[in-house]
Amino acid sequence: MTGTAELNVDEGPRRPATDGSAERPVDLRNRVRDAHHTGEATVAAQLPPDDGPDRPDTPDRPPEPDDGPPAEEPAGEYLAVDEPLLAPRAHRPSDLLKFLGGLFLIILVFVLAQVAVSTTTGIEKDITVNADRIPGVLSKISALVSSIAVLTVPLAFAVERLIKRDGLRVADGVLASVLAYGVSLGVDWWVAASAPEEIRNALTQFPPGGGETLTDPVHGYLAPVIAYMTAVGMSSRPRWRVALWVVVILSGAAELINGNTTPLSLVLTVLIGWSVAYGTLYAIGSPNIRPTGQHLMIGLRKVGFVPSAAHLAPPAPGGTRRYLVTQQTGPLLDVHIIDREQQASGFFYRAWRRLRLRSVAVRRSPQSLRQALEQEALIAYAAAASGARAPQLVATSELGPDAAILVYENVAGRTLDDLADEEVTDAVMASFWASVSTLHERRIAHRRLTGESLLVVDERTGCLVNLSGGDIAAGDLTLRIDVAQLLTTFALRIGPERAVAVATDVLGPTRIAEALPLLQPVGLSRQTRGDLQRMTKERKTAAQALALKQVAAGERTQQQAEEDIAQAGEDLLARIRAQILQIAPEAPLAPAKLERLKPKTLIMVVALTFAAYLALTTIRPDQFKVSQMNWAWASVALAASASSYVAAAMSLTGFVPEKLPFWRTVAAQLAGSFVKLVAPAAVGGIALNTRYLQKAGIRPVQAVASVGASQLAGLGGHLMLLFAFGLITGSQTNGDLGASRAVIIGVLSAAVLALVVAAVAPLRRFVVTRVRSLLFGVIPRMLDLMQTPRKLVTGFGGILLLTLSFTACLDASVHAFGGGANVTYAAVAVVFLTANAAGSAVPTPGGIGPVEIALITALTVAGVPATAATPAVFLYRLLTFWLPVLPGWIAYNILQRKNAL
Hints:
Layout: E1 2-9, E2 41-44, E3 77-84, E4 89-90, H1 93-115, H2 117-131, H3 136-163, H4 167-193, H5 197-203, H6 222-231, H7 238-257, H8 263-284, E5 286-287, H9 293-302, E6 307-316, E7 320-327, E8 333-339, H10 340-344, H11 347-356, H12 369-386, E9 393-398, E10 403-409, E11 414-415, H13 426-441, E12 454-456, E13 462-464, H14 476-494, H15 496-507, H16 509-514, H17 526-553, H18 558-568, H19 572-583, H20 599-618, H21 621-624, H22 631-653, H23 662-675, H24 681-695, H25 700-732, H26 738-759, H27 761-786, H28 789-816, H29 825-840, H30 850-862, H31 866-882, H32 885-897
Helix pairs in contact: 1-5, 1-8, 3-6, 3-7, 4-6, 4-8, 6-8, 13-14, 13-15, 14-15, 14-17, 17-18, 22-23, 22-28, 22-31, 23-24, 23-32, 24-25, 25-26, 25-27, 25-28, 25-29, 28-29, 28-31, 29-30, 30-31
């Protein structure tokens, strides 16, 4: 819905401003225009009362008396502001950040309470000794005064808010205080019932006088008071903020002196109240105080403009709001509003980019609203002085304490994103390159040369907009990133050939060649990275569909179709590099080092930390019953586990027609044991094997087909072995064992599921489409393998050996704890094939948790005592999952250094 805000402005005599501002009385009245003909909602603009820092500044005007209606003023002309109604509440990222920061500090308090026992105990003793020196009468008086004040100040503030008709803030504060009280009760219960003794001793103590009841870990009234005062926004009012902290400090000091609390308890109380308040504000939203178009009109009048209407335009990058303002006399204005909420948006993404990339690749964000205003103004003036085609900045102003405006002359045109491909002419691109070259000569970097920042004025002229993210005195690397970004932006629209040719004509081959090492996704904007991925996926999907039709029609051979698909899936950046090398063969090929922290490094650190934590918390020595373990059978289980990696290498190499280094393939399978820590086993193994084959020189389509063929063959072998061992188990026990019934039930369930899929048309089409795309590459690979029987024997032999190795490891683990007499090898095979598959279906890293539960349950059902099944499963998981982690990490790093992964 669109609202039209009406401002009745009595301008008085017009005169030019001599000091950069214009003093004019502004009369804002509640008026509603008839919206019958337009069908639009009409919102009467009324300037809110001056209500402290959380309200935008109001124009200078004589105050009106509180006890009577406003005096009538002559009617002026109406100013229409066409904009959507702002949401009454906003979820501020800053509130979320403060909430998360408070949680981190609360956790830190608990850690300190458990670790720094001697320090906390010493502080408590020092406070007790010094408190004895204070007269008892004085401590009682201070406790009484602080108790009254800590309740009086919030009540007085609530009355003040209600008088100023700000009841929503009071309601927010009441909700936050109730939640804080509930959290306090929960923490009190946890500390008293199940917290470690160190934490209990640090947060509680026996009161003086020989009381038998411990003090509360969290103050039941102080935490709600802090939550209330924080939620109602007292921190933005200096006087109330000082009063709050004075009474909080007095109350805390009185409680410490009287022995009713501990220092860490006071800190925890403040943090709980603070965190709950900001968590509540983020969950329900804070009252929206972002300036609207009405405030914008008032701000423009204060800096000497005479606006007549405004229209909300599409936002600039970063969420900056833009208004197109029509003046009574003068050109159209393009006004940008920057506020604190817009500054806080995208904080986590910017923090990650700043952590991951070097400082030259990431622009540092301004620390304050004033700095943001000055930074954008400086870039705009510098760009205009350089002679580049860019909008002219004509004025800046603060719009209250939480917003500012930048007024540009409007440049009519359409952005590059709004143009059709045929409208992107060489002349327009040359105009943009000329402006970028002019900026770079003055060491000015744009840093945001995407389609939304390229405004096409006519068929031959372009204008650079959205310079707010730019840099002055930029280094060579930053300028080269600009060139790489603009090259990629144009190549996405008209192809790498024309993009590189036009850029070379304007900048010359040398400057284009210098940008080649920067043509890497990590150095480009987020929008461009998404466009590159989408283009590659679309091209590859279209090529696969066309290849399927051509192969079916006999127009192309299978090999030619695979070559077409591989060519279509080639990265656009690689095509740009190839085009640059044709123009400048001497261009440097090595990519520039932009990353400070690579994602794989972070994943490895997280994986190792996760592994250490799980190993310490889930695997305990008492569960193994080492004293009762048969070491001979444990050695057999270890040997069976080691042989599984040889079997896995055989199952992979057997489905790849090309020759692979066998022991390097074994190392790749060992590296997969490390990858399982951060991904489900099947997903991590498929991704790792596909990447390994690609690094071995196999084309991506063929690599995916080989891994797919191996997985399909493994699935078929798994089902056949399950059925075979189920029949063997049933015959050995005259059909009385439940495992054989489970196999039959599973087969029948799969058959019913297949019938349902075949009967339901949408499901049938979905499955057929996925299977056709999979079999498109798998079947030709299988046909190639049939010409070399040795490969097939290796592949299927590896699948059989892999299953037998894991079964042997589990069987030997059962024997190691004396449970082998209760179950046969065939029954253990059925247990492994069913329970391991069921547990792995839950998408946890490595199947941690579900696999153990499923195996223990299945072994118990098969007749193994729980006292033997539990340690046997833990031994099996130790040998097949936990023990290979460190060797897998070593193999992973070695293969990466050898460029094999």
